[in-house]
Write a structure and sequence with these properties.
This protein is mainly alpha-helical. It is built from nine helices and three strands; from the N terminus they run H-E-E-H-H-H-H-H-H-H-H-E.
Length: 263
Amino acid sequence: MSNRNQMRLKSKYGPVRAWAMAVCLAASGAALGFAQDASQTLPAAKTVVLDRVVAVVNNRAILASDVEDEMRLAVLDPSRAESSTLTAKKALEQLISRTLIQQQIRQEDEQTAQPTPTEVDARLAETRKELPACVRFNCTTDQGWKAFLAAHGLTPERVESYMRYRVQILRFIELRFRQGIRIAPEEIETYYRETLSPQYAAGEAIPPLDKVAPRIEEILLEQQVSALFDDWLKNLRKQGNIEVLDPALETSETPDQAGKGGA
């Protein structure tokens, strides 16, 4: 190629190449400047922990959000006073027990213990009618029930799931522990004489034994079932692999004292 042609090519493409280079430099400089400005004006990124594992029960994780959920659901427990707040430690203990029970139900006969929709609906209707915390909301009405749920951060779906679990536990207890228990007449008479009768003041009419015997039998039956269930749950906790990962949620409570919260 002649020198003249080389000069022509240089004069033809040189300014274009220089312009392209200038654009690239300007663009990179603008990007660098933006990055510098951003670093000066935007706060440093922070790590946000969305959830965390606080305990593990036989390889099943319990999350911090599960504990919070359990604390919200405590308002549905009729045995808990409205002003009584479930602590995070106690909520975790209940979740540990619940996890162990559900694992055992799956191993034994989950299908048999599965409640019907009718049973769940009946339990829910009973709760809406008799729950002390529901009185001022008038939960028997749809509007009142919605207001109650909203006030406690609950959803109808979550409450239905919770009620299904409670009915399932009661069915499981009925099938596993209640069958085969027999209350002797002597036990009923002893309860009538030593427990019921002393509750009446002098001169107050005491109902005859034959009138209250069925209810006494039910009370004694429930006591025995509860004792069997507590012993069974105590053994589950002893045999299970339970690890609390959050030191703030550790408790000195012994396994058999955890109870069966939520049942």
